[in-house]
Amino acid sequence: MINITSINKNSFFFLVAVLVANMFVSVSALGQFVVKEASVSITGEVRTPLVLRLADMEKLSKTKVVAKDRNDKTRSYEGVELSSLLGNAGVSLGEQLRGENLVKYLLVEAIDGYQVLFSLAEVDPAFTSRKIILAYKKDGVMLPADEGPFQIVIEGEKRKSRYARQVISLKIVFAK
Ligand SMILES: Nc1nc2c(c(=O)[nH]1)N[C@H]1C(S)=C(S)[C@@H](COP(=O)(O)O)O[C@H]1N2
Ligand SMILES: [Mo]
Predict the structure, then answer these.
(1) Cα–Cα distance, 4 to 169 (Å, whole number)
(2) What is the pLDDT of residues 43-62, one digit of tens each?
(3) How many angstroms separate the CA atoms of 32 and 29, rounded?
(4) What strand order describes the sheet that includes 104-110?
(5) Residue of the nearest CA to atom 5 in ligand 1?
(6) Torsion-angle region of residue 71: left (phi > 0), alpha (psi -120 to 50) or beta?
(7) Which of 68, 154, 165 to mutate for ligand 1's pocket (most ligand atoms within 8 Å of CB)?
(8) What spacing in Å lies between the alpha carbon of 91 and ligand 2's midpoint?
(9) pLDDT (mean) for 124-142
(10) Bridging pattern class, strands 115-119 and 132-138
(11) Total-model pTM
């Protein structure tokens, strides 16, 4: 005679096994997704910490900066001004960039641990007409993997040392 309970028990365990296997598949798929989908976080002395992916970046108003690349070739870079990224995170710029806010700085970090620094006044269009962007395109195409997806490009900067490639973090730090 067939034992109904034991069949149900078996199919229950089978069902659990399938569910668990599916869970692992989705988690590893998610892992791959996270690895592929690079992002930039905006943290520190901000009102609203942000994490921006390429799709988020493309929705923001873009600006072009013509600059020489690492091979001294003149390129047209396209991206978002640092001031608007920081503005979205609620960083004190413009009228609010005074008093002790003037000793806050922007620390940029790349995936290889490379770091560069800007004073807030350097990136604020209320202080300077020199644009500093987080570029994602070069001559109309997405940046190559070893430069992007996000790279700092600075209008009129003679040395390339602060053109941080593969940027992953923008952090506002209080120098006091
Ligand atoms: N992520 C990252 N970006 C970086 C660097 C680096 O080591 N890591 N080097 C910087 C320096 S010192 C220079 S001169 C320029 C150009 O680098 P390249 O000479 O390696 O092309 O990239 C800048 N951006
Ligand atoms: Mo350099």
Answers:
(1) 59
(2) 999 999 999 999 999 999 99
(3) 5
(4) 50-53, 39-44, 167-174, 104-110, 115-119
(5) 164
(6) alpha
(7) 165
(8) 29
(9) 97
(10) unpaired
(11) 0.82
Cα–Cα distances in angstroms (integers) from residue 170 to residues 41, 69, 110, 158, in the given order: 6, 22, 9, 22
Backbone angles phi, psi at 81, to 5 degrees: -60, 135
CB neighbour class for 173 (10 Å; exposed up to 12, middle 13-18, buried from 19):
middle
- Token pair 């600075």 in the structure block, residue: 154
Q: What is the pLDDT of residues 77-128, one digit of tens each?
A: 999 999 999 999 999 999 999 999 999 999 999 999 999 999 999 999 999 9
What is the mean pLDDT of the segment spanning 24-31? Answer: 49
- State which of 40, 161, 167 you would mutate to test the pocket of ligand 1, scoring each by most atoms of that ligand within 8 A of its C-beta: 161
Q: Which residues pair with 170 in a beta bridge?
A: 42, 108
Ligand 1 centroid, distance to 114 Cα (angstroms): 8
- The closest residue, in CA terms, to atom 24 on ligand 1 is 164
Which tokens hold the place of 88?
A: 């979205």
In the block, residue with structure tokens 């995170």: 89
Query: With contact defined as beta carbons under 8 Å apart, do 106 and 171 qualify?
Result: yes
